[in-house]
Amino acid sequence: MAIPLIRTVARLGLCVVTAIAVCPLVPTTAAADGSRALVVPKDYPTIQAAVDAARPGDRIAVRPGVYREQVVIGKDVSITGWGDQKTTIQAPTKLIPGDDGGNSIVEIHNGASVSLSRLAVSGPGSGTCDSGALGAGIRVLGGARLDLAHAAVTHITDTPAAPCFRSATAVFIGEMPTGRGSATIRDTKITGYQGAGVVVLNAGSTATVEHSTVTGHRTLSTDGIEFVAGAVGRVTRSTISDNGCREPDPGCGPDFFNEFQHAGIAADTPGTVLQHNRIVGNQVGIYVAGVGIDIAYNAIQRSSYVGIALQDGSFTVRKDRIQGGVHGVAVIATEVDTNAVLEGVKITRTSGAPVQTFECCGFTATATAKP
User: Fold this and answer.
1) Is 53 helix (H, G, I), strand (E, B) or coil?
2) Which residues contact 36 (CB under 8 A, 6 or more apart)?
3) Separation between Cα atoms, residue 197 and residue 174, nearest integer Å
4) What are phi and psi of 296, to 5 degrees?
5) Who's near 350: CB < 8 A, 6+ residues apart?
């Protein structure tokens, strides 16, 4: 088993914004708390120019348009558009590597606390797997924090879209090997990514995803939301769909001992909460390993293999509704004896056994069903 881990070319207002254009600048307005409101492109021709000019606590309002630029943020600011279908930060032709060496459309670092709302972050990138691959739509690292709300992150792929290793994650929180970040993602649409929808990496990294939609790529192998290497978080009242193995993907398949699986949600850290979600059309709906992961009240439908996979630990699953797939629940032991208690879990319309155990290497897997 493996849990897979500036230029704006648009007519905005009365001026065409390019790398060298100069729009009329007007004074910014200040609030009672001393924070200022900076308007793009009225006050500054690009979002990055406004970020560079902002003081910590300032608010940046971005008018409708397509802004072809990378945005790097290292201070506490809020950036608000006019809606995710009206204001778009679009990947430029050439991406410049950020702090982690990867190419991201928006990078948040340096411990900054940043709010992004009512806008879209969109690819595709112009690179390929061999050169200039798109790393992420939004990257949060260096202890930074993101609040993403009423937004969209979409078309996070290379050109052409391809299964590039460790590339094109829509929202990537944390960094290799030990860097941290955190995020709250609310009322946001994450679609068309090449790698994963949301990755939260390393101990100390956290994320909450609520009332959001995470939808995989139609032709590439993808994962929805991953909490890995000690990261912890919550996914509630969200829809995660269409993540799974797709050709070509060597080594991918339903064999838990010898192949890779792709999942709607994958987690390996105690304290992670997965509740009240709708999880549809993934290869594996939820795939978790370890102990202390709260799985409850999810509706899991049409998984191509397993609704919930529980590996190498002790688990209690409560009140989930699983429909379709080969098995509703798989209990897998590869490194320790594994036990699962299923409390009020309803499983229907599976082509194989509703609950199936898989054992390897002398370890045992058991499942106990309770009303």
Assistant:
1) helix
2) 28, 29, 30, 54, 55, 58, 59
3) 14
4) -160, 145
5) 322, 324, 325, 326, 327, 328
DSSP codes, 165-182: TT--EEEEESBTTTB--E
Distance (Å, whole) CA 5 – CA 13: 43
Neighbours of 295 (CB within 10 A): 26
Phi, psi for residue 48 in degrees, rounded to 5: -65, -40
Contact 134, 91 (CB under 8 A): yes
Q: Residue 248 burial (CB < 10 Å; 0-12/13-18/19+)?
A: exposed
Query: How much is the pTM?
Result: 0.90
Could you read off the pLDDT of 119-172 as tens digits, one per residue? 999 999 888 877 888 989 999 999 999 999 999 999 999 888 877 766 789 999
What b/e string do you get for 10-27 counting C-beta neighbours within 10 Å, with b at 16 or more? bebeeeebeeeeebeeee
User: How many CA atoms lie within 13 Å of 272's alpha carbon, on the beta-carbon side?
Assistant: 34
Written as six digits, the tokens of 102 are: 């990867």
The most distant pair of C-alpha atoms in the chain lies apart, rounded to whole Å, by 73
As given in the structure block, the two tokens for residue 361 are: 């290497």
SS3 140: strand
Angstrom distance (rounded) from CA 369 to CA 371: 7
Burial class for 206, CB neighbours closer than 10 Å (0-12, 13-18, 19+): buried
CA distance 329 to 284: 10
Q: What letter represents residue 108's amino acid?
A: I
Q: pLDDT by residue (tens digit) across 324-353?
A: 999 999 999 999 999 999 999 999 999 999
Alpha helices, DSSP H, located in 92-242: none
